[in-house]
Amino acid sequence: MRAGVLFSGGQDSTTCLAWALDRFDHVETVGFHYGQRHAVEMEVRDAFLAKLRAIRPDWGAKLGEDHVVGLAGLGAISETALTRDEEIEMGESGLPNTFVPGRNLIFLNYAAALGWRRGFSTLVAGMCEADFSGYPDCRADTLDAQMRAISLGMDREFTLHTPLMHLSKAGAWSLARELGGDALVELIRTDSHTCYLGERGELHDWGYGCGACPACELRARGWADFAA
Questions:
Q1: pLDDT at 167 exceeding the cut of 70
Q2: Is the domain covering 2-193 a CATH 3.40.50.720 domain?
Q3: Does pLDDT of 138 surpass 90?
Q4: 154 pairs with which residues across the strands?
Q5: pLDDT digit string (tens) for 172-187?
Q6: Per-domain residue ranges of the chain
Q7: What local confidence, expressed as pLDDT, does residue 69 receive?
Q8: Does the first or last residue of the chain, that is N or C, have fewer Cβ atoms within 10 Å of its Cβ?
Q9: C-beta separation of 38 from 193 below 8 A
Q10: Residue of 52, 45, 35 lying closest to 8 (CA atoms)
Q11: Is the CB of residue 104 less than 8 Å from the CB of residue 12?
């Protein structure tokens, strides 16, 4: 009953962390520095984990080591709006230029390699088909294929749980409330980070952010539906 959670510090990964703590006896977290322009998401992780331990000591007792993996090479070769200072727009491929090719596939490989050493073969991550931006590495069939390759390549069965796969952003807020009540909802609202531009100057009803990037718009709409 051990699991590793891909934990960026955003709304989805913080909700998935709570989901894992509600189900597993020991949970470790792993985040990735890949040259993202919103690297502030990595900076909020420590404070979030400390506050989560405070509001749920039972979960705090299950929280194990937090790991941070440097993947600067991914940012260097991707040239996207998440790794460069450029306007967010749709690309010629039909995907937004926030798509970092191979990102989730690489993350899963590193998380599984870490699990090999740390003794967990269950991964938990926040990929979602219902409210995503068309990213092909968020699709269930893509992730299933990747986990099959990981299991074959490591000669050990690895499994992936994606609790948000078929939930809207409003559904993600509702799941957080089911798991940890209003205290967890408030912690995610104020201490997680989603904004692609890394803006944390103004606290909106739905959390910090620029309010204009696709990530903020999605989070704000989800909060409005949840709070209605």
A1: yes
A2: no
A3: no
A4: none
A5: 999 999 999 999 999 9
A6: 2-193
A7: 94
A8: C
A9: yes
A10: 45
A11: no
Percentage of the residues of the chain whose pLDDT score is greater than 70: 93
Taking all residues of the chain, what is their mean pLDDT, rounded to a whole number? Answer: 90
With residues binned 3-state (H G I as helix, E B as strand, rest as coil), the percentages for the chain, rounded to 5, are 45, 15, 40
- Residue 204 is given by DSSP the state E
Q: Which two tokens stand for residue 213?
A: 């990037």
Long-range contacts from 179-186, C-beta under 8 angstroms, 24+ separation: 179/15, 179/18, 179/19, 179/22, 180/18, 180/55, 180/56, 183/55, 183/56, 184/18, 184/52, 184/55, 184/56
Which of the 8 DSSP states describes residue 96? B
| Residue 41, helix vs strand vs coil | helix
| Global confidence as pTM | 0.93
Q: With left for phi above 0 and alpha for psi between -120 and 50, is residue 124 left, alpha or beta? A: beta
The candidate with the shortest Cα–Cα distance to 31, out of 51, 16, 48, 9, is: 9
Question: Measured between alpha carbons, how far is residue 27 from residues 5, 42, 63, 186 in Å?
Answer: 7, 18, 5, 22
Nearest Cα to 227, choosing from 199, 190, 186, 166?
Answer: 186
